[in-house]
Write a structure and sequence with these properties.
Layout lengths: L4 E10 L9 H7 L4 H11 L7 E9 L4 E5 L4 H9 L14 E4 H11 L8 H14 L2 E4 L1
Parallel strand pairs: 4-5
Antiparallel strand pairs: 1-2, 2-3
Helix pairs in contact: 3-4, 4-5
Length: about 140
């Protein structure tokens, strides 16, 4: 017999470094999940993604068990990593945070393809370019 889904939770945690401390602990506690068990499983599965922000979709069942799906890092984090900055421009139309080449945009789009609802890599590239533009990152090429 299939388990009944009680709740779905979406959170973001740092790969390999999740702790039961806020903001993760209270969210998991309210859902009735064994926090220590989740943290151990998450850290084990994200060991190779150490220091990277990893979005997680957690499904909680009626018997207080859970499963989770790891997603790729947010596009904005990937863009910032590519330009080597900590944050985007605070005055987007006036100042630029950095530059990306078309090749870098394509690389990010291909990595994010599984999580985007784009039909092709070109459509995914346009989505990434839009995100970059809103952050003050110029696309050259």
């Amino acid at each position: 017999m299939a388990k009944k889904v009680v709740k779905k939770i979406k959170v973001q945690a740092v790969g390999g470094k999740a702790t039961p401390a806020p903001p993760l602990g209270p969210v998991l506690g309210q859902a009735g999940i064994n926090i220590g068990e989740f943290v151990n499983q998450f850290n084990e599965q994200t060991r190779e993604r150490m220091g990277e922000v990893v979005p997680v979709e957690i499904t909680v069942y009626d018997d207080r068990t859970f499963t989770f799906i790891l997603k790729t890092s947010p596009a904005s984090r990937m863009i910032l990593k590519a330009i080597g900055k900590d944050k985007g421009s605070s005055k987007t139309p006036i100042s630029r945070a950095g530059e990306l080449t078309k090749a870098q945009v394509k690389e990010i789009a291909e990595a994010k393809m599984a999580d985007l609802n784009a039909a092709s890599v070109e459509a995914a590239m346009r989505t990434i370019e839009g995100t970059a533009k809103s952050m003050g990152v110029f696309i050259k090429g």
